[in-house]
Structure formats: C-alpha cells, structure tokens
Amino acid sequence: MQTHPDVVVVGAGIAGLSAAALLAKAGLGVHLLEAHHQSGGCAGTFRRGPYTFDVGATQVAGLEPGGSHRRLLEHFQLPLPAATPLDPACVVDLGDGRPPVRIWRDPARWATEREQQFPGSGRFWQLCAALHQANWAFAGRDPVLPPRSPWDLAQLLPTLRPANLASGLLITATVADLLMLTGCGGDPRLRRFLDLQLRLYSQEPADRTAALYGATVLAMGQEPQGLWHLESSMQVLSQQLEQALAAAGGQLRLGHRVTQLERTGEGWVVHGEQPQPFALAATDVVLALPVQSLPDLLPGQLPGGYQRRLASLPDPSGAVVFYGAVDRSLLQSDCPAHLQLDWDEPGSLFVSVSREGDGRAPAGQATVIASVFTPARPWFALSRQAYGQAKAEALAGIQRGLQRQLGIAPNQWRHGELATPRGFARWTGRPFGFVGGLGQHPSRFGPFGLASRTPLPGLWLCGDSIHPGEGTAGVALSALMACRQLLARRGQVLTLGTAAEFGR
C-alpha cells in the first residue's frame, strides 16, 4: 500500500469518486477515504429485507450526449448505466383541485401543458429557455467559476460568448424578477408551482433563486437534456466510478473517518480513525464534503476572512424522509415515477416510486420514498421524548399526504420507516445531516459562490457547495473543475470531450 500518495480525496460521494477516478487516470497516486462502509454518500442505498431504497437522490441528469456523467464515463471507457427517461419528469399537484401539472419530456408537449396550466405565461418560459440555452452551452465549455487565480481567469474568458455577456446582466436577478420582467408576476398559481420546483433543486423559492440557475433547472426535464430513472438503484453510479478508480490504480479506503487536516511545509497530513488512528501524508487534498466541515477539520488554520465567509453562510436544509413499500396493485396503473404535492404539514412532499422490474422491490410491489425539507439543527436539540414525538408527527403527516396523493392508507404499507436529519448525519457524516448544497441565492451563485481553489495551497473543494451546485450531474462537474485546477498546478492538462463535440 502506498504510504505517501500524491492526493488524498476525502468523501466518497459522487463528487469524491469522480475526482479520485479522474486524478488516478491522470497518473497520480490517489487514496479516497470514506467514513461509511460504502461509497455513494447521498446517492447511496440501503436494504430492508427484499427492498432497496435510495438514500437521497432518486433521479439523474447528465446521461444525454454531452452530459457530465456521460462525458466522465466515456473518459473512463465505461458503459452508460441502464436507465429509463422520465416522462413526465414529475407530476406536481398544487392541491387546488385542478389537474396536476405534468412536466413532459417533449418540449412541445410541455409548452402546451404549461400554457393550459398557466395561461399567458409564454413570455416567462421563452426568457427562461433563452437563458438556459446560453447557460448550457457555457457550462459545456468547462468554465472555472469563480476564478481565483490568473489560470482560472484564463480558462473562464474563452468560454464566454455574447449570449453569456447579455445574460450576465441578470446575474443578480431572481426567478421572481423574471416573472415581473415578463409581466407574469400576477399569477399566484404559477408562482406556487415555481416555488415548489425550485425548492427541490436550489433550496430556495422563486424570490431567492438566482435567475440564471433557475432558468436551467426549470428546463432540465426536457430534451435534449432530460432526467433519468436508474435501473437497480442509484448505487450503480458509484459502482461504476469505483471501477474507474480501481482500473487506474487508485485506492478506496472505506471505514476511514477523517478528523483533521494539517498543513505542513511539504503538503498535508490527513489524520483520522479506522477505528485505529491513522495519519496519511499527501501533496494535495481534495475535500468532497460540505464546506461546513472545514472549521472542524482545520482548527486554527483558516485565514480570518475565509473563516468569516464560511460562518456567514446560511444553513442548508435538512430532510425528513419516509421509506415505504406497498403492493403495486394499490397504485394507479399510470402512476409516475416522481410526484410533488403542495402539503402543509410537515411540508411539501417529493415522492419517488420504483418501477416494476427495476430491482428495488419484488415483483408486484413498489418502494415509495417521500421527502420533506426541514430545518436541520432543531432536531439535534430535542430530548429523547421530544424527538420521538416529532418523528411520530412527521410520519403521520407524510402518510396523510401519501394517502391524499396515492390513495394508500397508513395500514396498507408493507414496510415503513422515517429518517430525520439525525439519521442522515449518522449515515452520510454530513454536519447536522444537511442535504443538498448551499441555496442558490444570487449572492452565492456563479462568480459570487465559493471556489474550488481555497486560500490554502494544495487544498481543493468539490461537491454540492461548489459551482454549479447540487445534484449528481452538478457535483460531477465540480469535481472535474477542481481536478483541472489541481493538475494544472502540477503542469498537467486534463481534457474530456466537451458538450460542443456532441452537437450542443
């Protein structure tokens, strides 16, 4: 076993796995350390009897030609995972007695649907489409954002086009501002729909989601992009990246919890436990953990301004998640894979239903995962009794919502359990069980966000706290960006096929 790797990557979620595999393929000695007994992080899985449940993420973007996952897998010469396009991507019930909104994969069909659901909103959607097209082409040219060095700036400038400069005029605007600009701000039903959808992908409502970010995530369900349902489980993504890492000679070391990073004159020493204490020296460290982990991992080592910036960041959300299993005969024959319900208590439900034969449940049964955002920290201040009561109330509220949405009574579940931020903290190791990344407010988006290049030489960041944000496709791009910067510092160039090479 190599005792002094070139790079230690901390955290084996999709971002950490992608970074480790890219660096190993580039010829560096890489150790990937993960505290848990499996990789995948929030895109991992767990089993309960015959059922396989996706921990957090339940849908995937980036498998289309030029998409981030597809580019990485082709770079590693690995096949695409078996996946089914989601059509509709989601069915959104606004709870107002009107037919739910079906987000169709076909752009023309989706245009017809949204005009029926939100008459007169065409100007808003046309503006979003124009911004999305400029954003997507820009992202496919692999910009470095935000730039923190002359090299970063040299990578950013050639990726800019007139369309990007024009859309840059809206860099501080929100999605709610786009509604007002297009004369659509007076439609409360449209606003409610946008708030629900954006909360899923940006952790913010329309009046707090950056316009340029929101325009893209609102278009992700349609071709030529689209969302996908993976066969077997979300774990197949991490398994493929594990294969790429092993093929390139990198090492994945599970059960290795990192407790401190120490800057030395020659690089870094990574301290941790397995459960025995260990210390691993490396020239570079890539941290694929939430940025909220940095103060504890680097006590007394962060520059004052940087530490204050981290302290000023608002908390990401936590989640309460119901994992259930049910006879498929209780579901409607056309039940979509993903649904969203505007629900008061405990909050808006995002529901994922397994497909027959996808490996998550026995024949004739289905797994159902229902998640609700919640402030994370309060769950950790509860007494044992209060915690049990809060869990019971959340479970009852979610089951009432599922009965309203799917027609399943509480006594009809074959299996049911509830996870809270406490459980997510134990499972993922994320502080307070935070899910997703930083909310995509204009003040934290793009050039105003946290950079993958930190003030400490040889320390790099990737994951859902770094541009371009949360989701498996987004964190894969953040890993690519960090690896390009790290390798450039060593005089190496990392190139993948770009989105432009696939016709975009």
Characterization of this structure:
- The protein is an alpha/beta fold.
- The protein folds into three domains: 180 residues, FAD/NAD(P)-binding domain; 140 residues, no CATH class; 116 residues, no CATH class.
- It is 34% helix and 19% strand.
- A seven-stranded mixed beta sheet has the order 7-6-15-16-17-14-18, with helices on both faces. The chain has a five-stranded parallel beta sheet with strand order 9-2-1-13-19, covered by helices on one side. Strands 10-11-12 form a three-stranded antiparallel beta sheet, with no helix packed on it.
- Strand 1, helix 1 and strand 2 form a beta-alpha-beta unit.
- Helix 4 crosses helix 9 and helix 7 packs across helix 9.
Helical segment count? 16
The SS-based structural class is alpha/beta
| Quaternary status | single chain
Q: Outline the low-pLDDT stretches.
A: 499-504
Instruction: Estimate percent helicity.
Output: 25-40%
Distance between the termini: 43 Å
Domain module tally:
3
Can you tell me the CATH class of the largest domain? Alpha Beta
- Give the tally of β-strands: 19
CATH superfamily of the largest domain: FAD/NAD(P)-binding domain
Radius of gyration in whole Å, from Cα? 22 Å
Overall mean pLDDT score?
A: 94
CATH architecture of the largest domain: 3-Layer(bba) Sandwich
What characteristic shape results from the CA principal axes? globular
Largest sheet: 7 strands, mixed
- For the largest sheet, list the strands in their spatial order: 7-6-15-16-17-14-18
Beta-strand share of residues: 15-25%
Under CATH, the topology of the largest domain can be stated as FAD/NAD(P)-binding domain
